[in-house]
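Project standup — Tuesday

K.O.: blocked on the structure for the chain from last sprint. Re-posting the sequence here as requested.
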Amino acid sequence: MHTGKSAMKKRKPAPKAAKSLAQDIKPQFMLRCSRCGRPAGEQDKFCAECGLFLRDAYLDHRLLLALVEERNGRSREARQQLEHLLQADPDHVLANHMLGTFYFHQGTIDLAIERYQKAVAAAPTFVLGYYDLGVAWYHRCNMPEAIRAFRRCLELDPNYNAAHYRLAVSLFHAGELEEASNHFKQSIALTPEYLMAHYHIGVIHERRGEADAAEREFQRSLDEAVGEVSSLFHLAVIRRSKGDVKGAEELIRRAHEFGRAQSTTS
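H.V.: unblocked you, prediction finished:
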């Protein structure tokens, strides 16, 4: 009996091993004074060793934790770290931007817009903040605000190719076709891989009744993207209007064939 009891006592430390492992991991993210390295609690305003004000270290610590959680796929925990950080500093630019991106990807667009607006209000030259704000407004179907945000991007960086393209799409949906066409062309000049810009320029020409110019742009959008279904259909309409029924039917056949191939692979 004594031997059995002794053996049972030896098995008890197992849970402590797990606790010890958790304790070994945690200190990597322990808040420390940036001057003397002394550990500090989250509620400490000053270092007990050297008296340094710890607010900035606290914010950096929270931001680091959020980045680590995001990298490890723990979005909820990352969001919580950012929310804690913003309780201490509501105008923190990167935290507002990151939290806005979390909200955007979870589909809460209005909350994302609110955070992006706080980020650019605190940092008026924050290009990426204005870009993401424009994307959020676009998904909210508010083209005037999206256009305003993308314009601000281009004021800060005239060569921001993605902003040219996004501004062009927003202008296109707002019916500002001439300016949209100009920005589509600028996006192509900066990044020739933006083949969908050719498609949109083609649609603009088509709406103006410029069939030959539209046909050229639709064909260009197909040069690197053979299965671009929308361009195939638009080309078919143009070919049919020119009396090329056989050519139109061939384009329709290609479009349907691509659509079937996509449905079987999805």
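K.O.: great, moving the ticket to review. Residues 1-29 have pLDDT under 50 and may be disordered. DSSP finds 14 helices and no strands in the chain.
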